[in-house]
Design a protein that fits this description.
Structural class: mainly alpha
Protein name: AI-2E family transporter
Distance between the termini: 30 Å
Number of strands: 0
Transmembrane segments: 20-43, 63-84, 151-171, 212-229, 235-258, 270-296, 308-337
Mean pLDDT: 76
Order of helices and strands: HHHHHHHHHHHHH
Number of helices: 13
InterPro entries: AI-2E-like
Keywords: Membrane, Transmembrane, Transmembrane helix
Strand content: under 5%
Largest sheet: none
Subcellular location: Membrane
Number of domains: 2
Shape: globular
Length: 347
């Protein structure tokens, strides 16, 4: 019997990788905080290394970085809270107007254009509800589902609280964890895996630096431009729109929505809203035609359609944090597949 040890090892490694990926898929509901913490540790490890080079202990450097990050998040929350409070109050006050518009405008329009008389059917609807009151009481059977939603909310909060704890330990021990992971790689593959890891690190570092620069510049542009346009909540709207530019078109869509609502709270006329829309139109041109090509460029190498697919796929697997990790994770997979193709192609 002719055995091929090299072929058997390759098959074993392939099966182990496939099993590991399947295990990650099964554990995806609990992996979200760990993935997000790993991303934070990767991003801030160079800063901790610089503090360590200045003779600040690794633990104290990690605590200082996490403290600064916590203060930044707290500042962002303080800036955004008044905006959402004002818009919530505005929406609540607009509900009676919407009901009045529906009764006096929408219902007559439906009757005149489509022949649908919902106003005349109100009595029939009430009689139907009274006749099926017994069946409607069966809705109480779904109360356990409401309880499950409450448990899911508690689980989400627990994951949120878990992120800083996991980030602290990963960031403090990052260098040792990377070295230990490298020692787990079989010696025959260690050089090739190290080369792939270095290339992935270079791609992600350039992408992260470029994307952070775009976010900061767009947040500054939107905040300043909306302030010049006379919007009361310019800083909050500008920061939200700027932060969300890492997702294609999400920043401008959310920015236009929040800016429009803020304009309605402030005045509500076209003279208030038109400058806000112009600002976001100019911002989209500035980001898409100048800042992103200049600062980010083609460092990731993903087509816009592939970016959208990656965002949806990782969001389906890992929820909201999967959206945050979609582009860098896709970039890493692209580098790995490129090396795999080069290895499998004949010379």
């Amino acid at each position: 019997m002719d055995l091929n040890p090299a072929g058997n090892r390759s098959l074993l490694y392939t099966l182990l990788c496939a099993g590991g990926l399947y295990l990650l898929y099964l554990l995806s509901p609990i992996l979200t905080p760990f993935l997000f913490a790993a991303a934070l540790a990767y991003l801030f490890d160079p800063l901790v290394d610089r503090l360590e080079a200045r003779r600040i202990g690794r633990t104290w450097g990690t605590l200082l970085v996490l403290l600064g990050l916590t203060l930044a998040v707290a500042l962002l929350v303080l800036i955004l809270t008044p905006l959402f409070q004002a818009q919530t109050r505005m929406l609540m006050t607009q509900i009676p107007r919407l009901v009045e518009w529906g009764q006096e405008g929408l219902l007559p329009w439906l009757q005149s254009r489509l022949g649908i008389d919902l106003a005349g059917s109100q009595t029939e609807i009430l009689d139907w509800l009274k006749g099926h009151a017994g069946e409607l009481t069966k809705l109480t059977a779904y109360l356990p589902a409401v309880g499950n939603q409450g448990l899911a909310l508690l689980g989400w909060l627990a994951n949120l609280l878990l992120i800083p704890v996991v980030t602290f330990y990963l960031l403090r021990d990052w260098d040792r964890l990377v070295a230990g992971t490298g020692r787990l790689v079989p010696s025959a593959m260690r050089a090739q895996v190290a080369e792939v890891a270095r290339e992935v690190d270079a791609v992600l570092s350039e992408f992260a630096r470029g994307q952070i620069s775009v976010i900061l510049l767009m947040a500054l542009f939107y905040s300043l431009a909306l302030w010049l346009a006379g919007l009361d909540y310019a800083l909050a709207v500008g920061m939200v729109a700027g932060i969300l530019v890492f997702v294609p078109y999400l920043g401008v869509v959310v920015g236009v929505l929040l800016g429009t609502l803020a304009g309605l709270v402030q005045g509500g006329d076209l003279a208030t809203l038109l400058p806000v829309w112009v600002v976001f139109g100019l911002g989209q041109l500035l980001e898409g035609m100048l800042l992103t090509p200049w600062l980010v460029g083609d460092r990731v190498g993903l087509h816009p359609v592939a970016v959208i697919f990656a965002l949806m796929a990782f969001g389906q697997l890992f929820g909201f944090f999967g959206v945050l990790l979609a582009i860098p994770a896709s970039a890493a997979l692209l580098v790995a597949f490129r090396h795999l193709k080069a290895h499998l192609d004949p010379d």
